[in-house]
Fold:
Amino acid sequence: MSEERNVRQDEESTPRQGGGVSIGAMTGGAVASGSGASAEDRSQRVGGSEALPDVSGLTVPAPAAGGVSVGVMTGGALASGENARAVDASVRMDAPAQRLLASLGELRGQLPLFAQVEGNGVAEVEQEVVAVQGALEAGGTAPRPRLERLRDLLRSSATAVSGLASALAVVQAIEQFLG
Structure:
């Protein structure tokens, strides 16, 4: 038993060699390699898919044994090594989602100008705006029923905010977003 313990201690004290990471071209994302490795990409990308960079003539060095080789990395997460952990929590937001998010921000900034009186719809609008904004920021999209509810609230003359230009901008942005 003491012999087994000595072998384990020797193994634990011996530095472990990893092959590392070799990347030819990287335009976004996160990479970690080594002992307590961890990589997280929580970026927010606006627009459609990015065009790949010109990599003609690019030579990616081969990694050492146990390593990882990547030609082109435009986002995501990669971890290689002992306690490797990679998280890709990035969000890609297209142009309609970006416009909707901007118009929601403008409307939300104007909501405090209105008193939240029962029956004037301000509280309902604010609740939906906050929910849609949160969904867009977290995942680049929002549930269709929630978007339709917000659109219908803003179209209704029963809400005190329906006459605002920013409310009309949100309605138009929702229409574009929904297609």
About this structure: The first strand starts at residue 21 and ends at 26. The helical segments are 2-13, 95-110, 122-139, 144-155, 165-178.
